[in-house]
Amino acid sequence: MPVISLKDVNKLYGFGDAATVALDEINIDIEQGEFVAVMGPSGSGKSTLMNIIGLLDKPTHGNYTLGGRSVARLRSSQQAKIRRDRIGFVFQSYNLLPKLNVLENVALPLAYRGITPVRRLKRASLLLDQIGLKDREYFMPKQLSGGQIQRAAIARALINDPSIIIADEPTGNLDSSASLVVMELLSEVHKSGNTVLMVTHNPELTRYANRVLYMHDGVIVHDEQTPIGEVPRRARRVMYLFPRKTEEDDAAGVSALMHVMPHKTAAKKPKKSSKAKTKSKRQRSKTSA
User: Fold this and answer.
1) C-alpha–C-alpha distance, residues 186 and 128, integer Å
2) Which CATH number goes with the domain that contains 91?
3) 203-217 exposure pattern, b = at least 16 Cβ within 10 A, e = fewer
4) How far apart are CA 159 and CA 112, in angstroms?
5) Is 57:51 a contact under the CB 8 Å cutoff?
6) Minimal CB count within 10 Å: which of 126, 139, 198, 258?
7) Count of domains in the chain?
8) Secondary structure of the chain: what % helix, strand, coil (to 5)?
9) Could you give the count of Cα atoms lying within 13 Å of 197 in the half-sphere of its Cβ?
10) Beta-carbon count within 10 A of 102 CB
11) Does residue 178 contact residue 146 with C-beta atoms inside 8 Å?
């Protein structure tokens, strides 16, 4: 059974002649553990689709089934609980609260589950350590780089152990190096068994997905399966807009990830003892003489 199923889903904004069709007869099934990238021009309905799947909006017509349950039959309180416990959101604009430090921002979702402050801060600290932000947990959001803020946003999305991650242009405001780090983190989330839905304009990022949806004017015009690590055939048609990725770029991405998460790198070489340093100095003195 698909974890996400949309049947003849429409979304209209406005009324009568002023009505705008944001989604038009969407039919899609998404299995648990898929990494789905959604592409399309601005205004094609990508974000509207994500908002409906994430229970942030309701379809005008059609049926949406989440985990085998019809969403239309769920009360508002039940939908809020599902959003809290099963879905993690990562936004392009980060949406961290500016008056809370990184640790407090990441721990915030746990407050709505009634977890005590000490336990939620401890759990948030452990998660920040895993993504390489342990030394930034008491910083305010304005003191971080864009890549660090987005990693903190991913940590906040993961704090409740959701089974579904919805990422709307997660690298839209980041440079190439920070984008690689964020995408590697999302890849690790996917490898752990989570379902990841990502909106992107960059066809290069589709190599992290195993399925790509192409939208236009509120309709899914193509649904393409693809091996992870490869850019799908249709996405390659617009690759001329982006620099070609090489093996050196892949290595740079791994290097960037290891740089921000040093605890996952190999152990450091032991420092030379004071005797070894003295011996080395004597050898240099003899050589100079």
Assistant:
1) 15
2) 3.40.50.300
3) bbbbbbbbbbbbbee
4) 12
5) yes
6) 126
7) 1
8) 45, 20, 35
9) 26
10) 27
11) yes
Decide if 234 contacts 224 (C-beta within 8 A): yes
Give the tokens for residue 120: 């939620």
For every one of its 289 residues, what pLDDT tens digit does the chain have, with 9 covering 90 and above? 899 999 999 999 988 777 889 999 999 999 999 999 999 988 899 999 999 999 999 999 999 999 999 999 999 999 999 999 999 999 877 789 999 999 999 999 999 888 999 999 999 999 999 888 999 999 999 999 999 999 999 999 999 999 999 999 998 888 888 889 899 999 999 999 999 999 998 899 999 999 999 999 999 999 999 899 998 888 877 654 444 444 454 455 545 555 555 555 444 444 444 444 455 545 555 445 4
User: For the whole prediction, is pTM greater than 0.70?
Assistant: yes
DSSP-based three-state secondary structure for 165: strand
Helix (H, G, I), strand (E, B) or coil at 39: strand
Supply 142's token pair.
């304005």
Contact 73, 249 (CB under 8 A): no
H or E element that contains 122: helix 117-130
Give me 127's structure tokens: 């998660």
- Identify the domain containing residue 39 by its residue range: 4-288
For residues 166 and 92, the answer to whether their CB atoms sit within 8 Å is no
